[in-house]
Amino acid sequence: MTEENLSERISELKEKKNAIILAHNYQIPEVQLEADYLGDSLGLARKSSEVDADIVVFAGVDFMAETAAMLNPDKKILIPDRGAQCPMAGMLPVESVREAKRDHPNAAVVLYVNTLAEARAEADVTCTSANSVEVVNALNEDEILFGPDRNLAWHVEQNTDKEIIPIPEDGHCYVHRMFSPDDIRLLKKEHPDAEVLVHPESDPEVQKLADYICSTSQMLGRAEKSSSDEFIVGTEVGLVDRLRREFPEKSFYPVLDEGICRQMKKHDLEKVYRSLRDEKYVVEVPPDIAESAGKATERMLKLSS
Prior knowledge:
Elements: H1 3-17, E1 19-24, H2 29-34, E2 37-39, H3 41-48, E3 55-59, H4 62-71, E4 76-78, H5 94-103, E5 108-112, H6 117-120, E6 125-127, H7 132-137, E7 143-147, H8 150-157, E8 163-166, H9 181-190, E9 195-198, H10 204-207, E10 212-213, H11 216-225, E11 230-234, H12 237-246, E12 251-254, H13 269-278, H14 287-303
Parallel strand pairs: 1-2, 1-3, 3-4, 5-6, 5-7, 7-8, 9-10, 9-11, 11-12
């Protein structure tokens, strides 16, 4: 089936089934273009709580679809490929959170949404890369258990007076860990007038070379309002596809062409179509976990602007 035919059939099924498609910025261009809403983790969390639909097809990784399921218990949440599982989310099992809480009973638990629902059920509040500093600084506690991304924890640490305790010690995104300071310096030498935009999942030495530390949606916003015509982009290459499409008059250079999230790229247009057609694969979160983790997510939405 051609891409055009798939798009037509997806549109027909969306209308017939009162369905929408949410997609993360790291999806392949064909899926990005088919989405009703395209964004970062924070934007998708907000959108999933506002949807007026019976079915939501979530083109992202597992923890994102779980967030949508928790915020929409009356909706059917689908993920096109069950293999779209975030490795970083798997680095923080629930028992590790419970052990850290026992060791630090006075600490607030702030978990990145890039964490599975079972672990998030142990959190006081969740956060995203876009609002992590804002959420942490809004809390009364001086001691913060923060996981699972060590580099995002470092970024928060630079912007708060609170004590940040990372859990686990070395949680990370394998894509953002590919980037090195030398990669940035080489591109900066080739493009001396380019602004450097870096995601806070990158290593501290990479973050230190950035002009702006940004979530993916913040990178889009910066590209739109900046007077610069050139940007070095330190995140997964799917965002570069979107930046080039939306700002064709500007130039965007990925830190690494190999900066690809294999799990995000498991979705394609045919899988989105089959997901809608067959209403699979359904994402469900046990009610007790959904209630606790949902409260942490809702608190995040209240604390962040």
